Amino acid sequence: MAEDVKDCIFCQIVAKKIPAFRIYEDERSLAFADINPLAEGHVLVIPKNHAVNLMEITPGDLAAVHQASQKVATALMKAFKPGGITMLQLNGLGANQVVMHYHVHLIPRNRPKDGLTILEWEAKPGDMKAIEKMYKKLIEAF
Ligand code: AMP
Ligand code: ZN
Fold it and tell me: How does residue 14 score in pLDDT terms, banded at 50, 70 and 90?
């Protein structure tokens, strides 16, 4: 895993030092095919500038990546006509982020037959006292 920008695999894709199926790009963002697709049409959208995660990316790059994601999602719907598209974005080892360069996953879905059960969960009512405690702690952090 690269901490250093020069070793970052996604920076190398941006610089065309390693190949990728480049689907869309503009001044600030790049979309390319994930090489371990969870479904047909699994695409990653990244900022061209290196940023590790949601907390570090600049507001301008964040906006650009999500605007590019909207364009890619529209093309995915047109090309594959899935039942829907899941957008996933992981931050930190504890969240199973593997590549330490901010990226959005766009994953076309056709539930339930696509078998991506990891992307499904059952709603279980929370403890309101615990939610209130969480709320107070989070508000304090702002
Ligand atoms: P994560 O950091 O867990 O959100 O996921 C990293 C994603 O990057 C995985 O889905 C990998 O399949 C994908 N990936 C890693 N290296 C490459 C590459 N060279 N080209 C395209 N996708 C890649
Ligand atoms: Zn990078």
Answer: very high
Q: Ligand 1 center to residue 113 CA distance, Å? A: 24
Pocket of ligand 1 (CB under 6 A): 9, 20, 34-36, 44, 90, 96-99
Domains, the chain, in order of start with CATH, read: 5-141 (3.30.428.10)
DSSP, residue by residue, 77-104: HHHH--SEEEEE---SGGGT--SSS--E
0.90 surpassed by pTM: yes
Model pLDDT for residues 98-138, shown as the tens digit of each residue: 999 999 999 999 998 888 888 888 999 999 999 999 999 99
Distance in Å, CA 24 to ligand 1 centroid: 17
**Please, how many CA atoms are within 13 Å of residue 84, restricted to the half-sphere of its CB?**
8
